[in-house]
Amino acid sequence: MSDHKGTAVVTGASAGIGKTYADRLAGRGYDLLLVARRGDRLTAVAEELRARHGIAVETLVADLSEGADLDRVAAVLAGDARITLLVNNAGTATLGAMAETESAALDAMNELNVTALARLTLAVLPRFKAQDQGTIVNIGSILGFHFLPVSSIYSATKGYVLNFTRGLQQELAGTHIRVQLVAPAATATDLWEISGVPLSALNPNSIMSVEDCVDAALAGLDLGEAITLPSVEDAAPLLAAYDAARIALLGASQTGKPASRYRIS
Ligand SMILES: NC(=O)c1ccc[n+]([C@@H]2O[C@H](COP(=O)([O-])OP(=O)(O)OC[C@H]3O[C@@H](n4cnc5c(N)ncnc54)[C@H](OP(=O)(O)O)[C@@H]3O)[C@@H](O)[C@H]2O)c1
């Protein structure tokens, strides 16, 4: 493999945002290691990108919500010193009332959106730290900052991505390891059909193309953004207000005694 940029790992590269990341990163000169369940699609993506960009592409067929497959992928990532960039993109959503949610859908969201993202981060991080370089891109969602009556589980998983990523950014401050949170709003991918809410149910003006989403996310990475909200025009003051409220709430909690409204002692 050519090694000037190293190898980018993209999970969920058989469709949607991950497939577009693979294309754009190939265009930037990365070799690729692509992960998803549908091997036929991964093979087709790999052949196309090899032909178009002249880069090396490997594929790993794996169900990242299955423990044995996740262990196998984590071992590959931990052992491959060519890896310089990890895009934790694979994710799934089932939207609807909690009481009507199948337990398998609950498990799939938790295992893929949360456990796999953290485990694969853990797989690359020791080497990134030893080399004091590397980039991790975690795909969260605007629903990591917000919740809807139909999104309690999905929002919770993306809230994990938000807090995990921001904590990691603080932990790695002062190193040369980059960690970016990307939090898209509605993007035109298969995710919506899979979720049970078709794209046609959304306001068409609120839906971004997958190409625009990924191009904005990569532009945000180039700009050094820690949090990229691809569709938000004036993100900095909104994030500053969010952080100010968060920090004020934390500060207000540091009293060591019940609040007076509870009338305890
Ligand atoms: N679309 C949106 O509006 C939107 C908004 C905010 C955030 N996001 C986030 O963006 C990320 C990508 O989603 P997308 O919109 O591109 O969805 P998508 O088109 O459904 O693509 C999901 C990708 O993840 C892979 N995947 C799903 N389950 C997997 C599993 N168990 N193991 C391994 N790979 C698996 C799929 O491939 P296989 O089926 O071949 O495994 C596919 O490549 C997700 O984290 C999602 O939460 C999406």
Topology summary:
Layout: E1 7-11, H1 16-27, E2 31-36, H2 39-53, E3 57-61, H3 67-79, E4 83-88, H4 103-131, E5 134-139, H5 152-171, E6 177-182, H6 191-195, H7 210-222, E7 227-228, H8 235-252
Parallel strand pairs: 1-2, 1-4, 2-3, 4-5, 5-6, 6-7
Helix pairs in contact: 1-2, 1-7, 3-4, 4-5
The structure holds NADP nicotinamide-adenine-dinucleotide phosphate (NAP).
Short description:
The chain has eight helices and seven strands. With about 260 residues, it is α/β, with parallel strands linked by helices. The mean pLDDT is about 95.
Structurally, the number of domains stands at 1
- Taken from the alpha-carbon principal axes, the silhouette is globular
C-alpha termini separation:
69 Å
- As residue ranges, the low-confidence spans are none
pLDDT average, as an integer? 97
Q: With helices defined by DSSP (H or I, 4 residues minimum), what is the helix count?
A: 8
Strand content: 5-15%
Please give the largest β-sheet: 7 strands, parallel
Rg on CA atoms, Å: 19 Å
CATH fold-level topology: Rossmann fold
Do you know the CATH architecture? 3-Layer(aba) Sandwich
Number of strands: 7
Could you name the CATH class?
Alpha Beta
Based on secondary structure, the structural category is alpha/beta
Helix content: 40-55%
CATH homologous superfamily label? NAD(P)-binding Rossmann-like Domain
The bound ligands are: NADP nicotinamide-adenine-dinucleotide phosphate
How would you explain this protein's 3D organization?
The structure is a single chain. With 265 residues, the protein is an alpha/beta fold. It has a single domain (7-262), classed as Rossmann fold, CATH 3.40.50. Helix content is 47%, strand content 14%. It contains eight helices and seven strands, in the order βαβαβαβαβαβααβα. It has helices at residues 16-27, 39-53, 67-79, 103-131, 152-171, 191-195, 210-222, 235-252; strands spanning 7-11, 31-36, 57-61, 83-88, 134-139, 177-182, 227-228. It has a seven-stranded parallel beta sheet with strand order 3-2-1-4-5-6-7, sandwiched between helices. β4 (83-88), α4 (103-131) and β5 (134-139) form a beta-alpha-beta unit. α1 runs parallel beside α2, α1 crosses α7 (210-222) and α3 (67-79) runs parallel beside α4. The chain is globular. The termini are far apart. The model has no long low-confidence stretch (mean pLDDT 97). NADP nicotinamide-adenine-dinucleotide phosphate binds next to α1 and α6.
